[in-house]
Specification:
Elements (H helix, E strand, L loop, with lengths): L5 H7 L9 H11 L18 E6 L4 E6 L17 H8 L9 E5 L2 E7 L1 H4 L3 H10 L9 E4 L10 H4 L4 H29 L6 E4 L5 E5 L3 E5 L16 H17 L4 E2 L5 E2 L3 H11 L1
Parallel strand pairs: 5-6
Antiparallel strand pairs: 1-2, 1-4, 3-4, 7-8, 9-10
Amino acid sequence: MSPKRLPLILKYGISAPKFSNEGLIKVLKKYFLPQDGTAIILEEISEINLLIVAYNMFLESPTIFVNSHPEIPIQTIWYDNLPLWEICTSSSSAPTYFPAYELKNGDLSLPHIDGGIAANNPTLVAITHAIKLGHKLEDISIISIGTGENSQPYSYKQIVEWGLAEWAIKLINILMNSQSSANNLVAEQIMSTKNPEGYLRLQFELNNVFQQGTDQQKVINSYINEEVSEAIDDAREAHINQLIRVTEAFIEQGKVAYLDLEYQVNYPLVKEAIARFIHIN
């Protein structure tokens, strides 16, 4: 057992989260808590329309934090006066990695966890909110940027005998990846009805699996020809630099499916698709 986990086990018990959230909170306060100590409050932000998703474990439903809610023009929503750093902490509290974060509505305790549980790809939530703000679907443009897909395939032989322990380890990633893909598919179909070139999704597989013979598999990233760590908590400098290299190679070499005004699917280079998206929208 790592000595770093001992304080977490003493605080939360044997099934403690992998990390403390102290580092996360420190970083968020650095950017959202100015030097004068006055916290940035959600409802005070007026320069942009902000939308942040977290999952409320008390109500077992997502909380969509927004700084503009015209459907409730007068009433103050319970989270309006919350500091932005607290909202971001709750939205980043990934299960098993960080502890849940407690938000307060008066005396009511509302524990929240990572918004990815409800909307790992929040595109549909953003479209809905934009329409609430009075925008027409044909006037909405979205560039959706993923963080890399886990590409590990599972064979029937591999999973048929999985039990509680095996599914518990994999289930969160499977659920988050599947609903992200489903949200992307639905968003693409919705946008294609009014503004097909107003939606661009940028995502790539972290690794590709190449079959070598009957039993051997080679796992590498096809853009840099080396294996990329798929652990979301791998914060080593070497891994961060590797992800930057992969992203740069994806932009230069990768292709993306892009629906044009004639509803034809094209596969331009990523950098060309981005330039076209900016030009049109």
